[in-house]
Design a protein that fits this description.
Strand content of chain A: 15-25%
Number of strands of chain A: 9
Largest interface: A-B, 92 and 92 residues
Order of helices and strands of chain A: HHHHHHEEHHHHHEHEHEEHEHHEE
Radius of gyration of chain A: 22 Å
Strand order of the largest sheet of chain A: 5-4-3-6-7-9-8
Low-confidence stretches of chain A: 1-9
Distance between the termini of chain A: 47 Å
Structural class of chain A: alpha/beta
Mean pLDDT of chain A: 91
Number of helices of chain A: 16
Oligomer: homodimer
């Protein structure tokens, strides 16, 4: 409810922001429903009224009308008379025919297992971490495969840019991709550099997906799997580059230092680590999405957080690494750290 | 995330609005946690840093820091350096010492039973109503008592204004309050007009609360209970005024017409009905809060909706009533209908 969400709108005290926030779960589940029913895709293909959309999506006309109006209120659709249209962002990200489609993120972010982590945040605040057993973090937890499947389009967004930044053209590269997930970052490097050899590490069930994506991208012969925990499995050695996409936020400082020591031990001197994270500024309230990510970690991990650049830099230094530098990578931050 | 929520902010396609919406449940549950931990009340009483707040609320410092920063991002707290402060709205509505405190609404709106209704909105859109058995609507459902308890401060906000509007000073008034809940509207009339006799109708378990509030307000001797379903119980007769606060939105047109016929039959000719509802404009997308309320009804009722003034007027006319007029009552609308 963009127009009414500003805490400073109007001159009178207004309880609507509070009311809207308390109804926030409907915002999430309604967007998921619209994605699941392919409302944005049908509108992109020409269906304009609730009646037409209900027919195509095989829903009740009333349910579709309420859903579409709610999407207009939330800023995901436009409405002229009785006709709905896509917004700029929904055309790019929520129409299945768009190459940047990321609607599938809904199935991870509104997954019942994930939502369950947030139902008792009071207890999580008391404790300083998730109150669900292991949170999402269990080995081979089915949610990680869901995550890898559904977040693939999102990591795909930043992967080409990352590959351009870290590539060493004409030279061989031995790359370790820790918690490879859908494999996007490593695969993008392999596509750009025909001499790159990628070692993707993840849980066995997730790794099957990384490998499949590598084969689909035509780099399967240079994509090697390491199944297991990054804290325990043999990591191999001689890496020019280690990728750490969205991994450090799951753990506390001491655990990350231990991991980074393991990582440094298998790198070539002169190699680099490329970390992708949501990195809030030192004020911890900007940028909003990166700063808000700390709440996601509080609800879903034992001891994770959204770390500032200073905090990440300190972890690397405590593990023996050299200088770190930061640059924007879409809504996230790419941190390059010297051996 | 007010600053980033506008679908038209910036010139590049931006997936953050989508990401934010899919994380909407955390917005709801985090605000509930902050209310439950009395964060706003402690800040109002002078606690300023996360460390101080953690001590007072007996939480982990880390959890409190993440919670407070998240509240800043959501617009419910301010932050200067390490010190948190209340916003205008959180001072008025979320500090327990404020007379307009409405934090208790969180316990109904983020009640697990209520949230469960929204976990499969796709199916609700297909069907055109809730897919949970009876939704929230079962007789004597425990959630109605929760509702009445926790929503009391909210209905209290509009009740004094409503009483001023409908009062007939110096004259006796026999008032029927249908689905009285916490009883605020009827009690406000009884306080304003010493000759008013109020008949509050609700489920038996809820009515105990209405009666208790009437006694606390010193009007218990003029507050009478009618326990049961508004569709079945003997309503009495000879009413000058019938209150219908937040009731019609639970049902479809035909059901409401049947109810309104029952209501008209027990009124004095020349009497009035005072309906309080979230009433969207004909475009069904403004005002945002009233229009969005239709989604709450889709998820939690068999056949309810947020009705436009035209639709409400048609229900009254189909039941034999005369003219209806509408006026603002806080974030809701007061509709006065002639016999």
């Amino acid at each position: 409810m963009a127009a009414q969400s500003s805490p400073h709108a109007g001159n009178e005290p207004n309880p609507l922001l509070i009311f809207d926030a308390l109804n926030g779960f409907a915002r999430a589940t309604a967007l998921k429903a619209a994605i699941e029913l392919e409302v944005f895709t049908f509108i992109g293909a020409g269906a304009g009224t609730a009646a037409e959309l209900a027919k195509r999506a095989q829903t009740s006309p009333k349910g579709m009308r309420i859903l579409c109006d709610f999407m207009v209120i939330q800023g995901f659709l436009a409405k002229q008379g009785e006709t709905y249209g896509l917004t700029r962002d929904s055309a790019v990200f929520l129409d299945k025919k768009s190459p940047a489609y990321m609607g599938s993120a809904a199935f991870f972010l509104v997954h019942p297992t994930h939502v369950a982590n947030f139902m008792d945040l009071t207890a999580a605040v008391r404790k300083g971490g998730t109150v669900n057993e292991q949170g999402n973090m269990g080995p081979e937890a089915p949610i990680w495969l869901e995550f890898a499947k559904w977040m693939a389009p999102i990591s795909a967004m930043g992967s080409a840019a990352l590959a351009q930044i870290v590539n060493t053209p004409g030279q061989g590269m031995k790359v370790l991709d820790i918690a490879a997930g859908p494999g996007a970052y490593g695969i993008a490097i392999a596509k750009l550099n025909p001499k790159a050899e990628i070692y993707g590490l993840d849980w066995k069930n997730v790794l099957a997906l990384s490998m499949e994506h590598a084969h689909q991208a035509g780099v399967g012969d240079r994509y090697h799997g390491i199944a297991g925990s990054a804290f325990e499995v043999d990591l191999g050695n001689g890496y020019d580059l280690v990728l750490l996409p969205n991994f450090l936020h799951h753990f506390d400082h001491a655990t990350n230092v231990k991991l980074l020591q393991r990582v440094r031990a298998v790198m070539k001197p002169g190699g680099r680590v490329a970390t992708v994270e949501f990195v809030p500024n030192d004020d911890r309230i900007t940028p909003a999405t990166a700063a808000a990510f700390s709440m996601m970690m509080l609800g879903s991990t034992e001891s994770g957080d959204a770390y500032t650049f200073k905090e990440l830099d300190a972890m690397f230094r405590d593990a023996g690494f050299g200088e770190s530098t930061a640059q924007e990578l879409g809504p996230q931050t790419l941190i390059l750290t010297k051996y």
